[in-house]
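Continuing from the previous page...

OK, I double-checked the sequence for DNA-binding response regulator against my notes and this is the correct one:
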Amino acid sequence: MSHVVVIEDEGTVRDVLRFHLERAGLRVTALESVTGAFDVLPGADALVLDWMLPGESGLSFLRRLRADAELRRMPVLMLTARAAEAERVEGLESGADDYLTKPFSAAELVARVRALLRRTQPDVPAVLSNGPLSVDVGAAEARVGGRRMNLTRREFDLLAFMTQHVGRVYTRTELLDRVWGADFLGGERTVDQHVTQLRAHLGDDPGKPGFLETVRGKGYRMRPWADGA
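Thanks. Re-ran it with the corrected sequence; updated structure tokens here:
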């Protein structure tokens, strides 16, 4: 699941942005200013940035972002009420990848964000698999041995993420950030509970799981099926 950071100071607009991007299947971290942005941007896939912000403008922040060695390639969609051509050009020349003028439609917002993500991310298969486990990302449906699992949205998101990264170990903190979002207020116990629930859906033996393995002192990984076959 792609992670999009939104920086918008108007609460109503921020809520609308979050709603439509999450509805499109994206994970969203929303901020009201650039304060703390450099803490949440590493690992994000795109940034939706308002031009007019309190403290430091979006344009000034964008210039700092483009000067940062780690984050300089972050795809950025600039939002603004400024419609003059000269101002649009200024935003693009300062490093914005795309530009959207307020007011805008939800459909155009989502389409532009998805276009940015397509430019920078490798294609994710529509159907992920690991042995008898099949996860259809588009249909939000998962099956094991042909049996459809009745998963909550968060269970599905966690299963899809782990199946997309078979063999890689993730700490509980990393999973909270990647699946629940950096602004989630729950604790690491949430991850343990969801892993337990997923194991029940998968028919996994907690003592010797074929899929979701506990790596002592580190976290969890999705075992390559060949390891447990």
